[in-house]
């Protein structure tokens, strides 16, 4: 038994980082928690609907709808994600964000910054933005 556990640990250590890059973010989500510059996100953001395809996130809150294109960066750990707003309220189109993403079971965590030089390295949310979403069935 100990041998099998050790073997599993070795396999995980040597699994190519690129294997994580094929994350499937597709689905509809509900907010579990979120932080903006260290403070909880507002109620409107918590009640918004979040959905993802293989290359876009869509956020809808009442009459407001944002569509954000994204790409994952191969070979990074945690997996890096670059995003750009393709549709949204006036003044938001073209805004870029730089972050990290993690998927475990039915939970998606996303941490990001609008400053390319300040890409987050964790999901604590002390600076920038972090959102944790639970996939709806």
A few lines on this structure:
With 137 residues, this protein is mainly beta.
Textual characterization of the structure:
The chain is mainly beta and 137 residues long. The protein has a single domain (2-135), classed as Beta Barrel (Lipocalin). It is 12% helix and 47% strand. The chain is built from two helices and nine strands; from the N terminus they run αββαβββββββ. The chain has helices at residues 2-13, 43-47, and strands at residues 27-36, 39-40, 49-52, 56-61, 64-73, 79-87, 96-104, 107-113, 129-135. The protein has an eight-stranded antiparallel barrel.
What do the pLDDT scores average to?
Answer: 84
CATH architecture: Beta Barrel
Q: What sort of overall outline do the alpha carbons produce when their principal axes are compared?
A: globular
Q: Low-confidence spans: pLDDT under 50, at least 5 residues?
A: 1-21
Q: What percentage of the residues does DSSP assign to strands (E)? A: over 45%
Class per helix and strand makeup: mainly beta
Number of structural domains: 1
Taking Cα atoms only, what radius of gyration do you get, to the nearest Å?
16 Å
CATH topology, what is it called?
A: Lipocalin
């Amino acid at each position: 038994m100990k041998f099998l556990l050790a073997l599993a640990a070795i396999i995980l250590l040597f699994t190519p980082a690129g294997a994580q890059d094929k994350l499937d973010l597709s689905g509809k989500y509900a907010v579990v928690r979120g932080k903006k510059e260290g403070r909880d996100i507002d109620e409107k953001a918590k009640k918004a609907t979040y959905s993802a395809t293989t290359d876009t996130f869509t956020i809808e809150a009442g009459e407001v709808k944002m569509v954000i294109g994204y790409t994952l960066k191969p070979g990074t750990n945690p997996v890096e994600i670059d995003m750009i707003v393709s549709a949204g309220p006036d003044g938001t189109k073209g805004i870029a964000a730089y972050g990290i993403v993690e998927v475990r079971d039915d939970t998606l965590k996303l941490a990001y910054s609008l400053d390319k030089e300040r890409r987050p390295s964790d999901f604590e949310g002390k600076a920038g933005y972090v959102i944790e979403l639970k996939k709806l069935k």
